[in-house]
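Lab channel / #folding
Pinned by the channel admin:
"Please post every new chain as: sequence first, then the structure tokens as a reply. Keep commentary short and put observations after the output so the thread stays searchable."

First post following the new format, from NK:
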Amino acid sequence: MFESLEKIAAAVGAVVLAGGTLTGLALWLFKLFGEKWLSGKFAERLEAFKADQQKEIEHLRFEINKLFDRATKVHQREFEVLPKAWGRLSKSYHAVKGLTSSLQSYPDVNRMNDQQIGEFLSTCPLLNWQKEELRSASDRNRYYQDAIFWHHLAIVKDLCRKSTVYLDKNGIFIQSTLAEKFHQIEEVLWAALAEYEMNKQHDLKPREQEALKKLLKEGEPLMKDLQTEVQKRLWT
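Reply from TO:
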């Protein structure tokens, strides 16, 4: 384009040198062809800019959709995990409270006759050798209460263990602040269990009760606070 303009300018210049009458024509030609050239270049650059912008928009749209899809999957998994984690923890909490409660109820095995003791032992969860020892024990009540304690302890520990494993496995789908509250309650439960088992195993007098006191004092408020947070997360 510039070469064409230069040729035109040269021709016009020659005429001007010859006669000095075509200066206005030269300026008009420069203006005419210059504007067309600039308009063409502008349109070309504009189209290139639009194409680049469209590519950028498509790239951003792809990234946004990818992030949204990932977030949707994570939140969906969280909504599956939270109710199960809460259910397991709640079950463990009430099991630990029941086991460690000072108000325990046991059947009066000493007053059972042979037929009654036979029917009782048929549904009793004790092992067969324990059932035989119970039959021949001088104090059946004491033997049963001591033996059934370890059976109940094993059940409660298994509930707590399953709750802890589930949270450890799926805690990555739970917000960190919420997961921390789950762990805080679990620590209280495990401490109370360990203390209660130690008291029973070593027949400590007086009994250690710091962990049990903490469970009774902080357990319910912690559970209610966690329940509120879980509900907010699920329903907000």
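NK: Helices lie at 2-19, 23-100, 114-123, 128-136, 140-170, 176-202, 210-235.
TO: also worth noting, The CA atoms of residues 6 and 30 lie 9 Å apart.
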